[in-house]
Design a protein that fits this description.
Serine Threonine Protein Phosphatase 5, Tetratricopeptide repeat, 30 helices, 65% helix, elongated
Length: 710
């Protein structure tokens, strides 16, 4: 005969021996999840309907990101990455698993990231979706829906079929604006994939504690391994697994140890693979992040050296930034793609921001520790947040950024659990036997909960959809964010980069804008770079390069000093990164521009040498082939040259460029250049053919840009 049920509707482990008192309208420290004497019976349609509601919420708030373009790091990881664009042939899969995440981009300096599963998925999507960004975004939305549903299912198991609490937590997670970057920015799928791996592993462990099926351990290992191979920070789940089993299952110590060993094996496989592919950070001294990326570099005695952080500044700044994460979770406005110096600053022991954050974390840590034995769900959420955010907090490992919304994807699960768990307790709902309620009855019985979360959810959902639109393309993202974070050096150079880019000039032309608007865009780019350097007197190498390009775009006979400025910043970029083929190509362009009016053979030779070096480093970029074609074609008219041979060589280079990327802006130049060269030969038919081909490509691109872009 069953014992009389307690007033607790959310049970925990049967191992908990004492029964709690009746919960009052305060957040009780004894709001533990006590076991029901018998497994509640729930209408299966209630379970599936609640799960469907979570899926619909996730789909609804992220659906408008489906037509977004490639943005920010999407260019280096996907759009311009040779390895990603090679698809999923066996040789390329091997390359993906034996090289760093950014390998294949034009720069060959940053090799600290290893996320082969995420990159493999990008390669597959590039191949199957013909490189169209909308295909990537559709999959990102799907993975977000899957992640939200898995979270609901895990919580449903953890709370002994309390679908109301599970729906409330998973729904809040699905709608939160801080997740817009992880979903609306393709590259940040690695965060979602990592969370999916963790959730699948925990679900597998939960079922393993019920039936002891070793296949579930294998499934947990596979899931977690795929997750950690998608995002390194997922390694924190080694601690999350035993924590979950302790709080929400009847697993004995042996099973918890077994689960922990499985997670350690997964982490070990990842570390061994990473070691083989790119080496571990202990092998050789590494450069610390620049202040342009991580404000904590400002706490060092000497920013040019490794280490040397001043702890009286370092620790307060770390704690302040963690407090800023919590603030942003509660009030996700305004949001930004970048939080570099000086949008966030160094804080000392005399800072109120530090002390407020310190008191907050001291209080919640005290609460979580005090309620560990009672297995309080609020404490579990706090511990999840602290564990999941430990690796991105900069406290134990200084990472490449001070603050990033995408980094909160996995930790925010803990925040959602703690916040909704606290609200649930305040409303005194733990006494309800929610598991046996149908949808209508459950929603009615918990009307206050869903009213509060409905209001918050609507506000968050509106903000999420609005933020998704900011991530539409580089222009919409940078132009919006720089309005709110105009002191962020990194964001300023992003904005300057875009204003001086060929892509933006093409957009202006597609809108019917002329030379005056293009000139103003480059002048604004120069002003933006100057402002960035006034805040912090340095730029990343690509910032110097684009600074130089803005001057180059303005250069003409009436402003010869612009070409000198372009040359200065191109060379400065090359000094910062000697591996980047773009910088070599741009230096060659300066020699070429100076050689033409002077007819100096030595300048032509220098230009050709730089163009050839750039092409040797990257044989896929059409600009390099066009430049080699242009210089050989121009040299055909110089004394002592073979005009016929040079022009044929020029046609070969232009043709090779056209074949490499036949629908690009560069392909228009290739076709026009081929037509001009054939005209020099007197071949009117070929001239007409290639002129028409250039017009067709230009019209295609104009139509594409006017209908939303590429």
């Amino acid at each position: 005969m069953n014992k009389k049920r307690t007033n607790q509707a959310i049970p925990a482990s049967p191992a908990a021996k004492s029964q709690p008192k009746i919960i009052t309208n305060t957040i009780p420290t004894n709001a533990k999840l006590e076991p029901l004497p018998s497994t509640p019976t729930v209408n299966k349609w209630t379970t599936w309907m609640a799960m469907a509601m979570v899926a619909l919420i996730a789909f609804g708030v992220f659906y408008n990101s489906r037509n977004n373009q490639f943005v920010l790091d999407d260019h280096g990881i996907i759009k311009s990455n040779k390895i990603t664009k090679n698809g999923i042939g066996m040789d390329n899969i091997k390359t993906i698993f034996t090289t760093s995440h950014r390998k294949g981009d034009v720069s060959d300096l940053e090799h600290s990231l290893y996320r082969p599963v995420a990159k493999l998925i990008f390669a597959a999507e590039y191949q199957w979706g013909d490189g169209k960004p909308e295909y990537f975004h559709a999959w990102n939305i799907f993975y977000m829906i899957l992640c939200s549903v898995l979270l609901y299912w895990l919580l449903y198991l953890a709370t002994k079929k309390n679908w109301v609490l599970s729906l409330a937590i998973a729904g809040l997670f699905a709608v939160h604006p801080i997740h817009s970057e992880a979903v609306a920015n393709i590259k940040s799928l690695d965060e979602v994939l990592g969370a999916i791996g963790v959730l699948c592993a925990l679900i597998s462990f939960h079922y393993y504690t019920k039936n002891n099926n070793p296949l579930l351990l294998a499934l947990a290992l596979i899931s977690y391994t795929l997750g950690i191979f998608s995002k390194e920070s997922t390694i924190v789940a080694v601690a999350l697994a035993p924590l979950y089993l302790y709080y929400f299952t009847d697993a004995d110590r042996k099973k918890i140890v077994i689960a922990s060993v499985v997670m350690l094996i997964g982490a070990g496989i990842f570390l061994a693979a990473r070691e083989h592919a790119i080496g571990w950070f202990l092998h050789q001294p590494q450069k610390d992040p620049s202040a342009l990326d991580n404000v904590l570099a400002m706490t060092k005695l000497d920013q040019t050296k490794v280490g040397g952080y001043q702890m009286h500044l370092f620790i307060p700044t770390v704690i302040y930034l963690m407090g800023y994460y919590v603030y942003t979770l509660f009030i996700p406005y305004p949001l930004s793609c970048d939080y570099s110096f000086a949008s966030v600053n160094v804080e000392g022991l005399d800072s109120w921001k530090f002390w407020l954050s310190f008191i907050l974390f001291a209080a919640v840590i005290y609460f979580a520790i005090k309620t560990i034995k009672k297995k309080n769900i609020i404490g579990f959420g706090i511990l999840w947040f602290l564990i999941a955010s430990s690796i991105i907090s900069n406290l134990f490992i200084v990472i490449g950024t001070s603050f990033g919304e995408r980094l909160m994807f996995l930790p925010s699960i803990g925040w959602c659990i703690a916040v909704v768990g606290a609200l649930y307790a305040l409303l005194n709902y733990y006494k309800e036997n929610t598991a046996e309620m149908g949808i209508a009855a459950g929603l009615k019985k918990h009307a206050t909960l869903f009213l509060i979360l409905g209001i918050v959810g609507c506000a968050y959902g509106w903000k999420t959809m609005d933020r998704n639109k900011d991530w539409y393309k580089d222009f919409t993202l940078f132009s919006r964010d720089v309005q709110y974070f105009g002191e962020s050096t990194h964001l300023l150079f992003y904005w300057g980069n875009h204003l001086s880019s060929s892509e933006y000039q093409e957009i202006l032309k597609s809108q019917g804008k002329g030379d005056a608007e293009i000139k103003n865009a480059n002048l604004e780019a120069i002003s933006t770079f100057k402002k960035s350097m006034s805040i912090f007197p340095a730029l990343p190498s690509d910032g110097y390069n684009q600074y130089g390009k803005a001057y180059y775009n303005l250069s003409d006979a009436s402003h010869p000093t612009y070409l000198d400025s372009a040359d200065y910043y191109y060379k400065k970029a090359h000094v910062e990164d000697t591996t980047n083929s773009v910088f070599l190509n741009n230096i060659g362009t300066i020699f070429f521009q100076r050689a033409i009016p002077m007819q100096r053979v030595d300048f032509f030779d220098s230009a050709y040498k730089y163009f050839r070096k750039a092409y040797t480093k990257d044989t896929t970029l059409i600009d390099y082939m066009n430049n080699l074609g242009a210089i050989t074609g121009t040299m055909a008219s110089l004394p002592g040259q073979d005009p016929i041979g040079k022009r044929r060589e020029a046609i070969d280079w232009f043709s090779k460029g056209y074949r490499s990327d036949s629908l690009s802006e560069g392909a228009i130049l290739s076709c026009r250049s081929i037509a001009i060269t054939y005209q020099a030969f007197g071949d009117s038919n070929s001239t007409r053919y290639w002129t028409n081909k250039a017009g067709e490509i230009q019209q295609y691109r104009m139509n594409k840009l006017q209908n939303g872009g590429f």
